[in-house]
Amino acid sequence: MAEAPFGLLAELTHRCPLQCGYCSNPLELVRRDAELPTEDWRRVFDQARSLGALQIHLSGGEPLLRPDLPELVAHANSLGCYVNLVTSGVGLSRDRLRSLAAAGVDHVQLSLQDATRAGNDRIAGIKAFDRKVEAAAHVLAEGLPLTVNTVLHRQNLDNVAGIIAMAEQMGAERLELANTQYYGWALRNRAVLLPTRAQLAVADPIVAAAQERLRGRMEIVYVIADYHEAHPKPCMYGWGARQLTVAPNGDVLPCPAATVISSLEIENVRDSSLHDIWHHSPSFNAFRGFEWMQDPCRSCPRKEIDFGGCRCQAFQLTGDAAATDPVCSLSPERSTVDLILETEMAPSEVLAMAMRKMR
Amino acid sequence: MTTAVALDAVPRIRRGVKCAYDQIRSAHVVLFPEGVLVLNETAASVVALCDGVRSVGDIAVALAGEYDGVEPGDIASLIARMVERRVVDVDG
């Protein structure tokens, strides 16, 4: 039997007031009428806890768009889970936050798109900056710990010092600076988002210095730009190892991006229990452990560190989900990534960002 | 890099960190923003005494009655690892 998962990422809805062109949701967004109703989410939380999950991340889209959010928070809390609210901050009034805190939210993760109002609102596609600043103040006033999340890319990487300063000003205990990972919307907008080597060379030491300066006050988690690295990220710390995702329509995913692997048979909570899906489904067992690996991963000592990298990236860039993540310098397909860097970091014409929207 | 914790330092559980018993794993756990720590029996006893009142030395004395061979230095290094994981804060 596989080890129990520690966390459930509950994507309560794909609806969102923001239109970020690197959204981690899939291109095919789940529409409102296909979302799981309250009683199904309650059952999903029950099953996740019985399976071993101790953290429930309430995410989306924007989870505040679900009117049943306080009830879902209270239910997750009653199970003894750590409840993490992942939000854009839009719609998080003082009263709303107070009722969510009373229902049992333990921690708030607030997205920030850029250091300034103009930059933030251009990337988000709506006027959201002031509301984020207000939301952060409400979180602090309520005495909840705050993490600020910023996705980094060519359009905001030069402002990383300002982003760090903004997170400090907002009173964050943690700041996640995550270079864009290219799936879904981000893959579509890759030529506008890929940072240049020069940008990374300036940003990396700024982040390192801030990590040192703010030690003990604000923890900075820095997620690398993997196309520029020699080794892949330890994606999900292994497939079906620590966390599972339930999409708004009840699809159960080994990772939030897993729908890109078109050969994967996705199960749904309307048909099976999370226990059966986690332990017995073909999708969760497809890339568990090391048996599925081919060389160079199979005989590589780094497989214990990076688990062969990301299955979705392998599928997207090589057509084989069981291949070595092609960002790895040992991958026979590394040239694919180098060609992308060469052509897309300095595109002959700068394209417009395709803003996220439901079709 | 783990920073040393002095014996007169006073540890307490950080804001936003929850301690719980997980019946599924039959273990004490610490839950915090992006992680879960599954504690062994000794670590669970130490965490339970990180109350913002007792010093590291006090905790070592309290546990010496319960366990054989408790060294204050071991308690201090365990707490230092908890500080590193942002589960515990120390004053003093």
Most extensive contact: A-B, 24 and 15 residues
The oligomeric state is: heterodimer
The side-by-side strand order for the widest beta sheet of chain A comes to 7-6-5-4-3-2-1-8-9-10
β-strand number of chain B: 5
Q: What is the structural class of chain A?
A: alpha/beta
Tally of separate helices of chain B: 3
Range of strand content of chain A: 5-15%
Main beta sheet strand tally, sense and closure of chain A: 10 strands, mixed
- Rg of chain A (C-alpha, Å): 20 Å
Percentage of residues in helical conformation of chain A: 25-40%
Q: SSE string of chain A, helix = H, strand = E?
A: EHEHEHEHHEHEHHHEEEEHHHHH
Shape of chain A: globular
Which terms summarize this structure?
heterodimer; A: 359 residues; alpha/beta; 10-stranded mixed sheet; B: 92 residues; alpha+beta; 3-stranded antiparallel sheet; two-stranded antiparallel sheet; 5 strands; globular
